[in-house]
Amino acid sequence: MAVAACGGGDEGATATFQPPPSAPAPASAAAGKPAGSDKELCEAVDQADVVLTGRMVRAMQGGKGPSAADIKDGLLEFAQKLSAASAGGDSAVARAMRKTAAESTEVAQAPDPATAGADPAYEKTTTDLEAACRAAGVKVKL
Question: Residue spans with biased composition (Low complexity) (predicted)?
Answer without folding.
Answer: 25-35
